[in-house]
Amino acid sequence: MELIDTMTLEGLLYDFFGADLKKPSQQISEQEFNLEIDEDGKKYKTRGFIDKLFLYSKEKRAVIRDFKTSKQVFKGKEISDNLQNLMYCLAVKKVFPEYKNIEVEFLFVKFDLQPDLLGSPGKGVLKMEKISEEELEGFEYQLTSIQEYLESFNEDDARSNLAAKQNYPSDNTFGGPLMCGKEGFKKSKGKEVLDKNGNPIPNYICEFRNPFDYYAIINKEGVLQKCVFTKEETENIDPEFFVEKRSYQGCPHFEKTEDSSFLV
Predict the structure, then answer these.
(1) 3-state class of 202 per DSSP?
(2) The pTM is what?
(3) Cα separation values, 181 from 109, 175, 178, 186, 229, Å
(4) In a domain, 120, yes or no
């Protein structure tokens, strides 16, 4: 609880109202964006939220602040190829097109956000370099490519790219069948490894490897709202919804038959 309070205090003390730059024309918490673009060869959909957005109308300046609780500040490609940075800048460009000067700051609240005596930013403050119009346009074409892939994605595509069918990575990281786990218990020198209570420790196994039942919650129009895994989770749903028990037949790579589908 003390850590949470400290992080909250850091966030609040770091100019939560945007007045360090001067009083903003508008400050918005949880600015939603829901983009559906179909123009000039660009076609994509994306949505999300910006933690804090400050707009300065005279300078046509927009300052985006995103609060992070990560244990480490971004580094390397997390800075140079940051998807959130691109997405936030694109969202502001589309929702507030008159604001040409867009800045993004990531605030890591587990670190000191306050400037030092010389005015240098705190260790938890990461100010991103400005993204050019050309970079944003390239990002839009990248989103278009992703959208095309998702719209044509089918079960055959999914089956062709299962973890169990991947090669082991050359850099010695986990991959391939290792990601699937295996049945049984952990062993060392041929003997089962026991926990502190003397019970054998199960091997890791992907939660989607074996079959299981689940419950689909559907509205009166027949549109799936969400899925839950226990009967108890369906007890307090909206009376307008109904519950349908369904079965997942397990990962296709380990199926016994060739004609079983992912979800029934």
Answers:
(1) strand
(2) 0.66
(3) 36, 11, 6, 11, 21
(4) yes
Residue 262 covered by a domain: no
Q: Hunting for tokens 């936030």 — which residue is that?
A: 88
Q: Enter the tokens of residue 59.
A: 């300078």
Residue length of the chain: 264
Q: Apex CA 225: angle with CA 224 and CA 229, to 5°?
A: 95
Q: What is the pLDDT of residue 257?
A: 46
DSSP string, 4-65: HHHHHHHHHHTTTTSTTTS--SEEEEEEEEEEEEEETTEEEEEEEEEEEEEEETTTTEEEEE
**C-alpha pair distances (Å), 249 with each of 24, 176, 212, 241, 255:** 55, 21, 7, 25, 8
Q: How many domains does the chain have?
A: 1
Q: Which regions in the chain score pLDDT beneath 50?
A: 1-2, 257-264
Domain residue limits at 142: 2-151
| Residue 134 placed within a domain | yes
Q: Which amino acid is at 195?
A: D
Residue 106 CB contacts under 8 Å (≥ 6 apart), including other chains: 66, 68, 73, 74, 84, 125, 126, 128
Q: Cα–Cα distance between 2 and 215 in angstroms, integer?
A: 38
200 occurs within a structural domain: no
Rounded to whole angstroms, what are the CA distances from 238 to 128, 191, 215, 235? 44, 51, 15, 9
- List pLDDT tens digits, range 218-228: 999 999 999 99
CA distance 153 to 147: 10
> Strand order of the sheet with strand 42-56?
26-39, 42-56, 61-68, 101-108, 125-127
In the chain, the amino acid numbered 253 is H
